Amino acid sequence: MEKVLPESVQTLHLSGPLSLHEWQQLFELAPFGIGVFDRDFRCRGVNGIFTELSGLAQGDHLGKTLFDITPAQAPMLLPRLKQLLHGVPRAELDLGCIHVSRPGGPRRWQMSCSPLVDAAGIFNGIFLIARDLTQDPRAYLGVTRFTGEIQEASSQHAQRLYQAEARLHHLSYHDPLTDLGNRNLLQERLELEIETARLNKQALALLFIDLDGFKLINDNLGHSAGDLLLKLLAQRIRHSLRPGDLATRLGADEFLVLLPDIRQPQDLVALIERLQHRLHDPADIGQERVRLSASIGVALYPEHGLTPDSLISAADNAMHEAKRRGRNGYLFYSPDMMTQMRERMALEQGLIKAMEQQQFRLLYQPMTDLANDSLSGLEALVRWQHPSEGMISPARFIPVAEECGLIEQLGEWVMRTACQQGQRWLAEGFAVPRLSVNVSVREMRSPDYVDRVTAILAQTGFPAERLEIEVTESIIQSVDQSLSLFTRLKALGVQIAIDDFGTGFSSLSLLKSLPIDRIKIDRAFVQALPDDKHSRELCRTIVSLADSLGMAVTAEGIETQPQRQFLQSLRCEEGQGYLFSHPLSEPHMTSMLAPQR
Ligand code: C2E
Ligand code: MG
Ligand code: MG
């Protein structure tokens, strides 16, 4: 970097060096505000007038960054500070005027800054100089152009003009809903921080935060509830950060957080985890208590990108990948994510085609009464019969269908096909004690979901009492909302089962206020039976609590006799798994069905 020496220093003439005490007096007695900042723009000291300008208490400045001390002015300072870092200015840089509101009325300050250089002439930070022009008629010259009179201009009219100007400036750098920074501010701060990090050989991190399932909140609770939630979460983000970090909102439910000066990877991880916890805490919106989670993508300078655009795009990719792997997670960017993204996009295109060309199939897996081994129900499980790749598992394509919005169409096809088949079996004289259909949370939360089920039942003639809807516990974000949805489904006569129970965060006591007919214990717990003590306890508790709440229990994924025997000993009434049968195609399933009595 080029050595700079401000002209003012070059022209300083002293007969002998001043003592530290004398310099201190000069600093304190200067008729204008002085702030001294290091090359990371952290405050090293301010004089009394500067303290008044900032509105902070004496001593509260030290260690804070310039952006914390004058957040409203930060955007205006950014391009100038960038020039300083590039070693452009040799002398004072005019930063223009700012307006601050103080108890005695608004004040107008003129700001300038100068580079601070060390003895070797190397850039080492900045001086910020602030002059109070509130009483100075020259400060109103801009206004005299409108009024023609200086006295006239220093009236309320002028102040209103200043306020409008300041407001306009603020708006162009902030998100009006949450008052976090906007894309402009992010872009400028990021450029500056990258430059600072480059000079200081430091790392910085950029977090791309996307809320999981926010659209559902908007759809179900309305946009004003959605806005309230965004404001609340924006506050939580802001409060989880360190001084000098920057939180911005890019739109919808997407937030970008800039974390300059990352020294220890473990500090970064701790910060991300703290942020994630805070976002996951329950939030009260009017009468409703909701619980959201967030997926976070992390990109690091210089590892993952050297420019603002490349860092934003890396963090964005990492966020999408985090979302794809399940929600409420965070992920650091890695180059092979690009390949995965491309694969995912291909899958998405393939799914659209599959829908048109009817490449989906249903298999049926029996459920068994553990007391007498009779068939007690069937679960419909979807497959994608891909023309070149063969059978694709729903675990691979359901999440993609959910993300690209195809799930509603696919879910409707599954429900209709299962009910048609169920009705055909009944018409042919077979017993179909219960037919279970999996429904994605996303699909179930769509506003016309109950209407669609009603229509399918009417069109196919399948008896509603024999239909069971399986949904995972993450449907229960808000008890009130789930209660109204479940009540409407129950009114049709349909039964409701909570699938994969134990993997989410809800508790049985939360479920007790909802009209739920069945709990399906997740395979993960059954798999570890009977040896694993924790799984044994968990299964025992679920069975006994469900029993006391009047809910039936099905154990999923039973593969061995000891597993079955242990569950029988708990009086778990139903089992499902390879021990009894794999999922079967329709003809194979037909051959297992008993005639109706
Ligand atoms: P799920 O609803 O919990 O279904 C049980 C899954 O466990 C099925 O996998 C089944 O084949 C498998 N399984 C059953 N018994 C055993 C066993 O003993 N051992 C092992 N290792 N696995 C067993 P599948 O068919 O691959 O489905 C995976 C998940 O995809 C389902 O889990 C369900 O959440 C989802 N899914 C399947 N069909 C649909 C659908 O039509 N709509 C929606 N939204 N999701 C579906
Ligand atoms: Mg299921
Ligand atoms: Mg399951």
Structural description of this entry:
44% of the residues lie in helices and 23% in strands. It is α/β, with parallel strands linked by helices and 597 residues long. The strands form four sheets. An eight-stranded mixed β-barrel has the order 13-14-16-17-18-19-20-21. A five-stranded antiparallel sheet has the order 2-1-5-4-3. Helix 5 (74-85) runs parallel beside helix 9 and helix 11 packs antiparallel against helix 12. The longest helix has 21 residues, at 336-356. The radius of gyration is 32 Å and the shape is elongated. It binds ligand C2E and magnesium ion (2 copies). One magnesium ion is lined by residues 499-500, 520, 556.
Shape: elongated
State the secondary-structure class: alpha/beta
Quaternary status of these chains?
single chain
Bound molecules: ligand C2E, magnesium ion
Set out the fold topology.
Layout: H1 7-10, H2 20-29, E1 33-38, E2 43-46, H3 48-54, H4 66-69, H5 74-85, E3 93-102, E4 105-117, E5 123-132, H6 141-147, H7 150-153, H8 156-171, H9 183-200, E6 203-212, H10 214-221, H11 223-240, E7 246-251, E8 254-262, H12 265-280, E9 283-285, E10 288-290, E11 293-301, H13 308-324, E12 330-332, H14 336-356, E13 360-369, E14 375-386, E15 390-392, H15 394-404, H16 407-427, E16 435-438, H17 441-444, H18 449-460, E17 467-472, H19 479-492, E18 495-501, H20 508-511, E19 518-521, H21 523-527, H22 533-548, E20 552-555, H23 561-569, E21 574-575, H24 586-592
Parallel strand pairs: 11-12, 14-16, 16-17, 17-18, 18-19, 19-20, 20-21
Antiparallel strand pairs: 1-2, 1-5, 3-4, 4-5, 6-8, 6-11, 7-8, 9-10, 13-14, 13-21, 14-15
Helix pairs in contact: 5-9, 10-11, 11-12, 13-14, 14-15, 16-18
Bound molecules: ligand C2E and magnesium ion (2 copies).
